């Protein structure tokens, strides 16, 4: 950044600081909070949910990736390089979220019920080097034992046992990551189990899922190493009529088993928003996990934009003073655009939404407490005009990352020098 540009950012921030001070907003405190709020970047954005297993398993479980933008990561080192580039363009300290299919298996056919922490040692060492936390997920899709659409709730005990063992081992891997990195690994279980058409016996299916989950979570790990989460879904491709792991099923499971509930922005009815659910579930659960994505008409996992849904999610977290209780992660995959850019756009937009929430004038909540609903609405609308962008630019500059859209040129250079050479 040139001296002139630096001065421009500094001057704009000074004026914004004064403007927010008039509304009793502590800008410095807001930036400190934002700086200490990590986002977990989903590894699967970088390679279109392909993974690095020696077995060639076609994508399944109702997951579909559209687009064929060149430069997909083909190996773990390539994926780590792409993630490092994205992280260099994002302010703050963050995390990376891995699926079990992203282990480094040395070309051997290691099935999922045989994974160990050793298969992820390269990721752990890389995370140490870059001062990152790691999160983890069992990969309960894209496998012959998931071809029927069922895993932990399968009617065949042998197949259930395979997936139970895979999830058990995934928790061992997650705990090893947490212990090695000094920050708990959130290990999230999602299964695609469901039917395209109406089932005859929903209860029996859910009883099997309940029993399998209890076996998965039978071993306790210190919460300094591992935090368990489960993720509901309304429907999916191939499970349009019935999903075993519904919102009600998993909410009850989390309350009774003391695990985290994962709310995914695309896993509910198109007219629902997870923002309204956050304060409700926080009354009953000490921690939750959010998978922030953007569904368009359905759970299509688009790159998140700074839209009303995202702003509402961020505001609910901040209004509930729950940033320390909410684990933030992204969950989308877009192969129609540059994959590194998709990470940068998504994380920066989530951070912008959080910043806007942190900069909300306290008079808005006070007006509601005093029953002045007219003032509440008026102040909410006026707050939209406050100069958060100047604060954001200052946040980026002090973190030594590009302001505005200048980061895009760095992505283009990386594309030309690195990803374009991949065939």
Structure notes:
By secondary structure, the chain is α/β, with parallel strands linked by helices. It folds into two domains: 1-25 and 362-423, no CATH class; 37-358, TIM Barrel. Helix content is 43%, strand content 10%. It is built from 14 helices and ten strands. The protein has helices at 3-21, 27-35, 76-87, 121-130, 157-181, 202-216, 247-257, 275-282, 308-319, 339-358, 363-369, 373-383, 388-398, 407-417, and strands at 39-42, 95-99, 133-137, 185-189, 194-195, 226-230, 242-243, 260-264, 288-292, 326-330. An eight-stranded parallel beta sheet has the order 3-2-1-10-9-8-6-4, covered by helices on one side. The protein has a two-stranded antiparallel ribbon with strand order 5-7. Strand 1 (39-42), helix 3 and strand 2 (95-99) form a beta-alpha-beta unit. Helix 2 packs antiparallel against helix 10. The longest helix is centred in the middle third of the chain and has 25 residues, at 157-181. The chain is globular and about 65 Å long. The protein starts with a helix and ends in a 6-residue tail after the last helix.
Short descriptors:
TIM Barrel; 423 residues; 10 strands; globular; two-stranded antiparallel sheet; 10% strand; alpha/beta; 14 helices; eight-stranded parallel beta sheet; 2 domains
């Amino acid at each position: 950044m040139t001296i002139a540009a630096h001065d421009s950012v500094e001057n704009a921030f000074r004026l914004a600081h004064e403007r927010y001070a008039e509304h009793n907003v502590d800008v410095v405190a807001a930036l400190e909070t934002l700086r200490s709020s990590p986002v977990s970047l989903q590894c699967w954005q970088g390679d279109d949910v392909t993974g690095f297993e020696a077995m060639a398993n076609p994508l399944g479980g109702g997951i579909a990736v559209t687009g064929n933008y060149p430069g997909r990561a083909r190996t773990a080192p390539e994926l780590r390089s792409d993630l490092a580039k994205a992280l260099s363009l994002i302010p703050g300290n963050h995390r990376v979220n891995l699926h079990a299919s992203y282990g480094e298996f040395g070309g051997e056919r290691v099935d999922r019920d045989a994974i160990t922490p050793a298969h992820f040692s390269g990721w752990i060492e890389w995370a140490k080097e870059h001062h990152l936390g790691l999160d983890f997920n069992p990969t309960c899709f894209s496998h012959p034992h998931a071809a029927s659409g069922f895993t932990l709730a399968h009617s065949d005990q042998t197949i259930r046992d395979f997936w139970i063992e895979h999830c058990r081992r995934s928790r061992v891997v997650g705990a090893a990551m947490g212990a090695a990195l000094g920050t708990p690994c959130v290990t999230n279980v999602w299964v695609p189990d469901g039917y395209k058409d109406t089932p005859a016996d929903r209860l029996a299916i859910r009883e099997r899922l309940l029993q399998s989950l209890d076996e998965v979570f039978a071993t306790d790990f210190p919460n300094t190493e591992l935090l368990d989460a489960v993720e509901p879904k309304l429907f999916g491709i191939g499970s349009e009529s019935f999903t075993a792991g519904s919102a009600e099923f998993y909410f009850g499971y989390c309350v009774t088993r003391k695990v985290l509930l994962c709310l995914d922005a695309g896993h509910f009815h198109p007219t629902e928003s997870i923002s309204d659910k956050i304060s409700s579930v926080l009354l009953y659960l000490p921690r939750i996990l959010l998978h922030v994505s953007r569904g368009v008409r359905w759970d299509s996992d688009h790159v998140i934009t700074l839209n009303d849904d995202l702003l509402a999610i961020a505001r609910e977290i901040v209004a509930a003073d729950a940033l320390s209780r909410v684990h933030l992660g992204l969950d989308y995959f877009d192969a129609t655009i540059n994959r590194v850019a998709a990470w940068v756009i998504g994380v920066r937009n989530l951070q912008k939404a959080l910043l806007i929430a942190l900069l909300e004038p306290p008079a808005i909540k006070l007006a509601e407490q005093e029953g002045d609903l007219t003032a509440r609405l008026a102040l909410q609308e006026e707050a939209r005009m406050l100069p958060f962008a100047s604060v954001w630019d200052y946040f980026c500059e002090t973190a030594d990352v590009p302001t505005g859209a200048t980061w895009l040129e760095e992505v283009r250079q990386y594309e030309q020098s690195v990803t374009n050479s991949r065939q």
